Amino acid sequence: MSDTPPPFIPFSKPNISEAAIEEVVSCLRSGWITSGPRMQRFEDMLTAYHEGRRALCVSSATAGLHAALLTLGLQSDEEIITTPLTFVATLNTIVLAGGKPVLVDIDPTTLNINVNQIERAITPRTRAIMPVHFAGLPADLDAIYSIAKKHGLRVVEDCAHAIGASYKGKRIGSFGDLQVMSFHPNKNITTGEGGAVITDSIDTVYAIECLRFHGIDRTAAERMGKGGSQYYDVVGPGYKYNLTDMQASLGIHQLPELGNYIEARTRIAKRYMEAFADWPELVLPAAPDYAHTHAWHLFTPRLSDKAAVGRDWLIEAMKRENIGVGLHYQAAHVFSWYRRNFGWQPGDMPNALQAGERIFSLPLFPTMTDGEQERVIKTLEKILHKR
Ligand SMILES: Cc1ncc(COP(=O)(O)O)c(C=O)c1O
């Protein structure tokens, strides 16, 4: 018998077509490799994809969240209500934009923010609600927007997981206030690193254009293109958050494939659901009762009380079998900086705390083969049932 380990199955893998690679090469040969014609083209494609709401490309969703929150003009310690079950970028950008994150626990079924608890977290200092569409499952946006309207709040949707998902027949990002997408390599589409802010406010478009490039009131194409002027004004201190044309070259070929990618992700998620349906050791992702389509960025079961092993042990055991398993996420309110600065205690958000201790992300990517998925299921079965 051979001792060769089976090939590694990553938890996520980008799917880069030959056309995308050729586009990057053409970009490199074109003489314009940073923000220019290809970024503009990708931006126009994203705008069309979100039904004409303007997309502004940025260097990451983190940059996009930061810039989007800065457009709210937060006064010191004004509050933004969000969820603890998210990547720390959600909370960090609130702090970096001068605000204070206020957490509302998750709904233990959907793992999204519990909309029934939002109103009691509102104070005179609250400025916005920031839902995260966890794993690609849309949060209950009607409920969130109606609370926002009642209390005069803005809504900034962290859509890092959710491009391509829909809520009550409408694509995420095609309606509402402000949305931010991520094009990190493990997301539904990728530009290597990258992101986009979506808005229908002309003022916000102008503000983000300035914020993403040094506060300069004119784009590179306007300054350096044919007939452009080298003069510009600085309307405020800005950041360096622009997306390069090399990155946009990937996006131009990723976006048209998004529907196919989500179809493949949905098929794989459905197969996991069927395989695990009667496993008492697992709590499976559950759907809310409102109409939606899931982008299946992540497949995140949780260990139940019946499991004889702990989550961290399980992840290590899967790794030993050459299978990558992710952890999305430890509840954000347990991290030391937040606890020190906001006095949060682990028990403040019991549902997020428990989810964060029991959740794990199984491999899920569009090119995953049936054979690879079978191996993940069989290995998990062995680990869960045989110890
Ligand atoms: C919920 C959430 N928000 C924001 C981000 C930040 O995205 P980016 O890596 O594009 O900055 C991530 C990234 O994983 C995320 O999962």
Describe this entry's structure for a reader.
The protein has 2 domains: 18-257, Type I PLP-dependent aspartate aminotransferase-like (Major domain) (Aspartate Aminotransferase, domain 2), CATH 3.40.640.10; 259-385, Aspartate Aminotransferase, domain 1 (Alpha-Beta Complex), CATH 3.90.1150.10. It has 13 helices and 12 strands. It has helices spanning 18-30, 37-49, 61-70, 88-96, 141-151, 202-211, 220-224, 245-254, 258-276, 311-320, 336-342, 350-358, 370-385, and strands at residues 54-58, 78-82, 99-103, 126-130, 154-158, 166-167, 170-171, 178-182, 195-199, 282-283, 292-293, 302-303. A hairpin with a 2-residue loop joins strand 6 (166-167) and strand 7. Helix 1 (18-30) runs antiparallel to helix 8 and helix 2 (37-49) packs parallel to helix 8. The protein is globular. The mean pLDDT is 96. Bound molecules: pyridoxal-5'-phosphate. The site of pyridoxal-5'-phosphate has 14 residues, from helix 3 and helix 4. Pyridoxal-5'-phosphate is lined by residues 60-62, 86-87, 89-90, 132, 158, 160-161, 182, 184, 195.
Which short descriptors sum up this protein?
3-stranded antiparallel beta sheet, 12 strands, 37% helix, Aspartate Aminotransferase, domain 2, Aspartate Aminotransferase, domain 1, 387 residues, 2 domains, single chain, alpha/beta
Give the structure's gist in a few sentences.
With 387 residues, the protein is of the alpha/beta class. Helices cover 37% and strands 12% of the residues.
